[in-house]
Amino acid sequence: MDEKRIHFIGICGVAMSALAVAMKKNGHVKLPDGRHVTSWAVTGSDRGFYPPVSICLKDAGIEYYPGWHVDLMTKDGVPDLVVVGNVAGSHNPEWLYVKDHDIPYVSYPELIAKYFVRPNSIVCAGTFGKTTSAALLTWILKENGYDPSYMFGGVSLNEMDSAAFTDSSYSILEGDEYKTSSWDPRPKFAHYSPTHLLLTSVEWDHADVYPKESLYVDAFKSLIERIPQAGLLVLSEKVSKIKRSEDQKIITYGHNNPNYRITELPNYCYMNVQTSKSGISFDILHNEQTYHIATPLLGDYMADNITGCFAMAHQIGIKPEGIIKAIESFKSIKRRLEKRLDGPITIFDDIAHSPAKSKAVLASLRKLYDGKIIAVFEPNTGNRKKESFPSYDQAFNSADIVIIPRLTSVKIAADDPSPPVEGDALADAIKKTHKNVRYIDDDEKLVQYIIDDIRDGDVVVFLGSHGFRGMIEQLCLSFRGVIDEESLDAPRIPFSEA
């Protein structure tokens, strides 16, 4: 079978890079419908390349280059297919060349729909926890003899790629509600044909795509309506904005509420949550049976994510003991309360890019640490709009100091009636309900401020989906010098421009 060429515009995104590696590794797989997947030669371009994505691409033997260069994209001939990421703006020369020369192109959700979706399509969706849930559910199935196709937008700390397609009849996909592409405004999960849906939460987010809360909720309502009558909805009790249908099989999960009568408990009810700096433990009650869970994952909210995965795995036929064993060995994914430095001073990195997500992370840390908590926060584009400002009220109360760094530059449409604000305006909005907020637009000064202010027992947590331009690494090196004199000669990591 002849090898074909596929090029990814914007390959450095976590999901795009995962799909690129999967396409490179999984040629000649026979799909359930009898089709064979062609072997692909994979190339990619992006604005810049940084670990861990650059390492993953290099290890997979994928050719990539920084910037947008038509000559490099076509040096071995015109690609047979181009996957266009949302990073490709209307003036991107590679994207313009693709359109001008009628080269076949798809968005990455369309690529997933063609190669990854299986007859038993499990989609993990929701404002919070969808990436962790998709990764954990994938791990549970893999550890129990299933070999699902899957994709989640994170880097696993277990020995597991972020995406793969197989000849299994099961697929597990992270269902992102953000828009598919510049030419398709539908949410990404609209392409995934769920037969099973794990819905973790619905709290208004991405105001740049959903300027009204009702539009955001409607996207999830539409997803639920796609589940066939013989399908399954595993629904968090926290989802209160969506009316439940009597025509669907719905399994609920959630936390034990002292005010519940026994008949009101969720089908899978977690309780007795214990948190420590080494993980969490809790019990799940289902049909009068109690199952004890212990995991190294941090954050008491992880009990909610784990219970949802337990419910879905149990409902498709996996025995509880097999589920529990897999949960115990799951190491999470990078940038989910990832401990970057553990010593007299502790540094965490978390992808929480919204006020609600940051609030949950900070509340969990406050339960574990008595020292001062310094939060460095950069929101996603939608949470830089003034429409989202009410959600910042009280969001950072568990932090002692909030620092807004120089925000990553974003493209602003000329006709945007509510363009994203800059860091000074965001800091002013947070100051309305927090007395200690600083805007520091110089990375070196920000790092030095933390070094000068912090004491043993304190915590620094970086919150946001961007990479913080080397500030985390610089702080880790600085404090390792305090903790371990042998690391004083470690090379300094330069700050990179956004």
Automatic annotation (TrEMBL):
Keyword field: ATP-binding, Cell cycle, Cell division, Cell shape, Cell wall biogenesis/degradation, Ligase, Nucleotide-binding, Peptidoglycan synthesis
Single GO MF descriptor: ATP binding
Q: Where is the Mur ligase N-terminal catalytic domain?
A: 5-114
Q: Which domain of life is it from?
A: Bacteria
Q: Which residues form the Mur ligase C-terminal domain?
A: 335-465
Ranges in a coiled coil: none
What residue stretches are annotated with the Mur ligase central domain?
A: 125-313
Q: Which Gene Ontology BP annotations are present?
A: cell division; cell wall organization; peptidoglycan biosynthetic process; regulation of cell shape
Q: Kindly give the InterPro entries that the UniProt entry links to this protein.
A: Mur-like_cat_sf (IPR036565), Mur_ligase_C (IPR004101), Mur_ligase_C_dom_sf (IPR036615), Mur_ligase_cen (IPR013221), Mur_ligase_N (IPR000713), MurCDEF_pg_biosynth (IPR050061)
Any Pfam family the entry gives: Mur_ligase_M
UniProt protein name: UDP-N-acetylmuramate:L-alanyl-gamma-D-glutamyl-meso-diaminopimelate ligase
Species for this entry: Candidatus Magasanikbacteria bacterium RIFCSPHIGHO2_02_FULL_51_14
